[in-house]
Amino acid sequence: MNGVPFPVGPCVLALVVIAAIYDIHARRIPNWLVAIGLGTGLVVQCALHGAIDGMQLWGGGLLVGGAVLLPGYLLRMMGAGDVKLMAAVGCFCGASGAFEAALTVCMVGGVWALVEMLRHRQMRAGLHNMAAIVVEVSMTSGSAPHEQGTRTRRPTMGTLPYGVAIAIGTMLSLFVNV
Predict the structure, then answer these.
(1) Residue range(s) defining the domain that contains residue 130
(2) What is the pLDDT of residues 50-80, one digit of tens each?
(3) Which of 9, 71, 116, 160 is least surrounded, with the fewest CB atoms within 10 Å of its CB?
(4) 121 to each of 18, 107, 155, how far by Cα in Å?
(5) Are residues 15 and 101 in the same domain?
(6) 79 and 165 fall within a common domain
């Protein structure tokens, strides 16, 4: 994004910091927080750009922000709350800003996952699980694919509170490009 208009930065910062703290402690992102983000994003976009343009920016950001993380949810690599939070962040950024922020979030999350696998000496299991996901996706033909694919995955150290990666990646995306 080429500059962050005044209310967008503080609103996004508040949203992602609260979500990250909540995700660290409760291991989930609450729907009420996402709903507040969606509503506030609509108000901010309409105030900044007028009703029609604001709703278009809001809707485009919502769709793009959620769409980029949706495959991770469908492959059971992240929770629905993470996808909804990224969609709410997208509401503030518009479609192009949401795409940039979501890609930055994916990079931050990927590096964090790699560091955690190395730290816990789970690299082999992690790579095996990634291969199992690729095989699962390539063999999916429409009839109960999920039950068969998960049996080939190995247990690893657990899950990451991806709300933290969303917070870090979003802030990097918004404020590095200012």
Answers:
(1) 121-156
(2) 999 999 999 999 999 999 999 989 988 899 9
(3) 71
(4) 31, 21, 12
(5) yes
(6) yes
